[in-house]
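Minimal example, chain plus adenosine-5'-triphosphate.
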Amino acid sequence: MIHLHRVSLAYPGTKTLALYDVNLEIRRGEFVFLVGPSGAGKSSLLALILRRLLPTQGAVYVEGTNLRRLRGNRIALYRRQVGVVFQDHRLLPARTVEENLAFVLRVQGVPRRYWAERITRALRTVGLAHKRRAFPHQLSVGEAQRVAVARALLPEPKILLADEPTGNLDRENALAVLELFKLAHAKGATVVFATHAQELVRAYPQRVVALRAGQVVADRRLG
Ligand SMILES: Nc1ncnc2c1ncn2[C@@H]1O[C@H](COP(=O)(O)OP(=O)(O)OP(=O)(O)O)[C@@H](O)[C@H]1O
Ligand SMILES: [Mg+2]
């Protein structure tokens, strides 16, 4: 499903490689924790899968397509199929929870008559149906992050990327957010989840890929 073939990445104007000769194959429906110290290359690897960056050497394939070959409109179309959650929720501050979700459905071209039902279902999944009219600043950090996950899951993406989505959360909220990713995984999504939290890995023993200084130093299957 996702295949990194001999991928190296140098950011413009830097000498050290952020990723060095990384080979990684992720099968459809796998759940992969990406771990490793700060600066190891986790976010860079996710940016390559999202095609926000292109590798300096090597290639990234998703479902057999070399992402380098995507042009113009097809880059946007590809990204729409990938759900992403970051450490900060990145909700639109001047829009309510339901407007934030509606925004995604509009971009996806979902007919308006389906919006209310889809939004209700998404918010029920994350336990926040009662917050649909709230603005992001009226939510707790944990609630806002659950809305961000609901938004990422709304298009039912086949690939779900998470870059320390629980970094700002306490233990209880972190586990609640992990539960949402587990649900998506159970429904068939391929998940790549970068985290520092060993506790999450223990809570959901799956494949764990460890990076250090831009290289894969361990790849274990716990589940
Ligand atoms: N925009 C950039 N320009 C130049 N170098 C960068 C840029 N972004 C990241 N790097 C470098 O690339 C390397 C990998 O960084 P990356 O952000 O991928 O690490 P990370 O594993 O996500 O770290 P963290 O756990 O702190 O988020 C680091 O050496 C970092 O300094
Ligand atoms: Mg990072």
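The chain has a mean pLDDT of 96. The longest strand covers residues 2-9.
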